[in-house]
Design goal:
CATH topology of one domain in chain A: Rossmann fold
Strand order of the largest sheet of chain A: 6-7-8-3-9-10
Shape of chain B: elongated
Bound molecules: adenosine-5'-diphosphate, magnesium ion
Strand order of the largest sheet of chain B: 3-4-9-6-8-7
Helix content of chain B: 40-55%
Largest sheet of chain B: 6 strands, mixed, barrel
Number of helices of chain A: 7
CATH architecture of one domain in chain A: 3-Layer(aba) Sandwich
Distance between the termini of chain B: 28 Å
Structural class of chain A: alpha/beta
Radius of gyration of chain B: 30 Å
Helix content of chain A: 25-40%
Strand content of chain B: 15-25%
Strand content of chain A: 25-35%
Radius of gyration of chain A: 17 Å
Shape of chain A: globular
Oligomer: heterodimer
CATH class of one domain in chain A: Alpha Beta
CATH superfamily of one domain in chain A: P-loop containing nucleotide triphosphate hydrolases
Chain lengths: 233, 409
Amino acid sequence: MAVVEVVGVKKDYVDRGAGTTHALRGVDLAVESGEFMAIAGPSGSGKTTLLNLIGGLDTPTAGSVKVDGRELATMTSAQLSDLRRDRIGFVFQAYNLIPVLSAEENAEYVMELKGVGSGARHERIEGLFERLGLAELRHKRPPKMSGGQQQRVAVARAIAAEPAVVLADEPTANLDQATGRALIEMMRELNRERKVTFIFSTHDPMVLEQADRVVRLVDGAVTSDDRKAGGAL
Amino acid sequence: MRTLLKMAWRDLWRNRRRSLINIFAVGVGLFLVLLYGSLVGTVMRAKDQLDDGGMGHIEVTAPGWRQHRNVRQALENPKSTVTGLPLPPGSDVSFRVVSRGLATSARGSKGVAIHGIDPAIEATVAAYVNKLRAGKPLAADDERGVLLGDKLAEDLRLQVGQKVRLMVQRADGEVGADLFRVRGIIHPLSPALSRSLVLVTAAAAQRTLGLADVAHQIVIQLPLAAETDAVAERLRTRFGERAEVMTWGQLMPMMKVLEDMMGVLITVISLFVYGLVALGILNTMHMSVLERTREFGIMRAIGSRPRRVVALVMGEAFWIATLGVVLGLGAGILLTKLGSGPPVLDYTSKMGESFDFAGMVMRSRFIIELPLGESLRAAALVYAVTLLTAIYPAFRVSRIQPAQAIHSV
Ligand SMILES: Nc1ncnc2c1ncn2[C@@H]1O[C@H](COP(=O)(O)OP(=O)(O)O)[C@@H](O)[C@H]1O
Ligand SMILES: [Mg+2]
């Protein structure tokens, strides 16, 4: 079953004065569990808009978005909150973390929202941080971390509560080449090892190389959908 | 909950200066209100203020006595009556045989107020009984001894050990006179009492007036002034037609009006101070919340419900209020400790040690007193004001659209 199913989705931003922007003009997309998928496209093509709609952060003007088989349009805002908490991980471009919480506390935050006890949380975070080479960051707060470290902790937080899908909106855009590559490789490994489904947007060719599947957006419409031979699927 | 309070606490210290100003504003606001309230409260309610004038929160008299001061209008068996009254624990109660009279010495005569008392019992409601300038206290079985107010003794040129004649109108209408000896000279703070008060034992007063075992006035001091009306009501049911029960508000209406005015004034001042504090908090919290729009957007995006971010903002207000209250109460307690030494207001040079005002004895030195109940009430008000103020910024935060918030770096 598809984890994410987008059918005929349109999104218009109505702006007094500037007029209406057709950010998405009818997008269809199905993402299976375990995919490592990129949404590519130039700036302004609608990548962020699409990820926001999939994550239930915004509502489409037309069409349907399903996550885990559940139609988002029928859900209340509290139900959407819970869906995000339980089924979706987010990584944004930068400043993902809650500044007053340490790396570890940030990663535990979603689990705590879910009501996971502190013992179980610690155990899971310890293992995860160990695995991701973040162990020495555990007690650091975001303002004391580099951009790359922050993004890695953000990925750890996104997968900590074992979501059905992680949505990453240009996660490497604020990082230098090497750091960006390391981040994508970390995501790649998590995808292989733990079957975490990733949908990330980018316009960086280096990042695109890593993806099994690349969906291209131009002006709010899908222009191509390529699967790499030998990919996970 | 613990995480929220922890986050709120840390958020508070991100902008240290702003938070300290808020905490300080709350603390100083509370302190000012406490200070002002305590000054007023000290004047009106302190037990020693009542003791200085030998007054009570409640007075019980025989019907009609208050208007006519006829010694026949009296309450029977005062001592047993007094011990059986339904009063809250910690109350002090005494009874008096009261008469006007004329005191005569070798030097002349003065109109006086004669109080027949049980010295030990009367001392619990009237400080002057034991404030001896000269001589000895009055013994309970001393049928011939008197204590005189110091001004009176001066006017009559009377010394301890000398004789004084007291003349009264007896219960049977005849003139009665008795010879007493001055045992002591007392110093009532009230200038009026100092000029006119003569204390004798109840038995001596009854004998001179030709009365049986009766008294004219029962004086009751309660541990809490606020209970006055309730206790007075109980006493009215208890005595029915046999006695008049009056509260200090009825006996000293001027004082009551003043106290009510002070109450209104304190309320106005409190509203003003808290209003300013609230405006400051509203402004800074609103600013701090707007600055963190993105952060709240992230919290919402990763699954926090709106009420959780509301709780976070309220948590910050909670800490501001808590620290402010600690500061305000702390300063209050500190000043109370210091204030029991040097008084905060001292009019001794202009008014003398004390003055009579609207039927009460006022000391010219005002010291600070923070009654626990009122301090806690003021502190609770501070919490309420701070938390209520935080509702608006919290509401704004709850309305944040995560998609927009996250992209508004
Ligand atoms: N909140 C918004 N209000 C108005 N227009 C918007 C808003 N968000 C995005 N847009 C417009 O929608 C189009 C798609 O934007 P976006 O999804 O951010 O593209 P991308 O992420 O690919 O750069 C752009 O033309 C952008 O200006
Ligand atoms: Mg974008």
